[in-house]
């Protein structure tokens, strides 16, 4: 595994892969590492990510307070880092943590428990979908996006034929 130097600034080999928004932030999805429960979404700039990668604790950039926010410092609901992954186009992080207590400031375990489900029309797979299931790249169960467009920013022409 490549060794990175995040001692004082985020390693340029990582920073160079980030696709930040206009405020210099990327979204960070926070997931309980063992149950895979999705707990919350926060935002990180380069320094918040560097701290998250190097200190064992999750640090966000608070958009409302415009300051670094190490989760749990005031609430006690700390997040201990177990792993961090970058998504395919660099605009989102998946942070696997051991969450102490509630992830949501309302006291709910997950922010999505607090917000609750919206009404949806449920979709169902069809027979033709079975073939597309076989093109998942690395074989990691549930982790592939075999049938998804290569980009979600409009660069895909909608034609799946011939893609690797
Ligand atoms: Zn919340």
Order of neighbouring strands in the sheet with most strands:
2-1-6-5
Query: Uncertain segments of ≥5 residues (pLDDT<50)?
Result: 142-147, 154-164
With helices defined by DSSP (H or I, 4 residues minimum), what is the helix count? 4
Note the overall shape: globular
List the secondary-structure elements in sequence, H or E.
Answer: HEEHEEEEHH
CATH class of the domain at 12-113: Alpha Beta
End-to-end separation in angstroms reads 26 Å
User: Which cofactors or ions or other ligands sit in this model?
Assistant: zinc ion
What would the CATH topology of the domain at 12-113 be? Ubiquitin-like (UB roll)
Major sheet: size, sense and barrel closure? 4 strands, mixed
DSSP strand content: 15-25%
Oligomer: single chain
Number of strands: 6
Going by CATH, the architecture of the domain at 12-113 would be Roll
Structural class: alpha+beta
Identify the CATH homologous superfamily of the domain at 12-113. Answer: Phosphoribosyl-AMP cyclohydrolase
C-alpha-based Rg, rounded: 18 Å
What number is the mean pLDDT? 88
Instruction: Give the proportion of residues in helices.
Output: 10-25%
